[in-house]
Design brief:
Elements (H helix, E strand, L loop, with lengths): L1 E3 L10 E5 L6 H6 L7 E6 L6 H10 L1 E4 L6 H12 L3 E4 L16 H10 L3 E7 L1 H4 L13 E4 L11 H12 L8
Helix pairs in contact: 4-6
């Protein structure tokens, strides 16, 4: 993948990293250039049913969650990651895109970003959907761009609604029109 705006890439935590979600390898795309420190994150529970992937994800700090269900235990795990000064990857769409168009961002995830008061790093993954659409049974040849946007600091916004609108606007792009 081609990494653009590398100067906006986080090098250490605590911080959140969020982006659009189109296929299974999106978390790995986000981590391609981050060589100083591994990221932690939140992932749907369905990926934890197989033994080897579960052991791997547990070892690097990936926390299982249910889709679209608020879980207080997840919040405690995220707070623990922040205290450990980890970089935390979260996909606030809650799942992979079906058609390359943005899904609504989960409000509770945006509230978590706001309440924690740490930098939020938006990442646009271009070419991800075309490389492996959710409905396809195999990866397709294509190019990928991992675009790190200017970090957002909750303290720079007067209220949650303005902050949430900014977060949403950065993920509102159609993946059928890559740069």
């Amino acid at each position: 993948p081609r990494i653009t705006n590398r100067h906006n890439m986080p090098l250490t935590g605590p911080c959140f990293i969020y982006g659009n979600h189109s296929n299974y390898y999106d978390p790995f795309l986000m981590n391609v250039g981050m060589t100083q420190e591994p990221t932690a994150g939140v992932m749907t529970r369905g990926q934890f049913h197989k033994t080897l992937p579960r052991i791997f994800m547990d070892s690097i700090g990936i926390v299982p969650t249910s889709k679209y269900v608020p879980e207080p235990g997840i919040i405690r795990s995220v707070i623990r990651m922040i205290q450990q000064e980890r970089m935390i990857v979260i996909f606030p769409e809650g799942g992979r895109r079906w058609d390359g168009k943005p899904k609504p961002l989960i409000e509770t995830t945006l509230k978590l970003f706001w309440k924690m008061g740490i930098p939020v790093h938006p990442v646009q993954l271009h070419g991800s959907y075309l490389g492996w659409p959710r409905w396809a049974d195999h990866i397709r040849k294509g190019s990928h761009e991992v675009r790190f946007m200017v970090p957002i600091h909750p303290s720079d916004f007067d209220d949650f609604e303005v902050f949430a609108k900014k977060c949403r606007s950065l993920m509102d792009f159609d993946e059928y029109n890559p740069p």
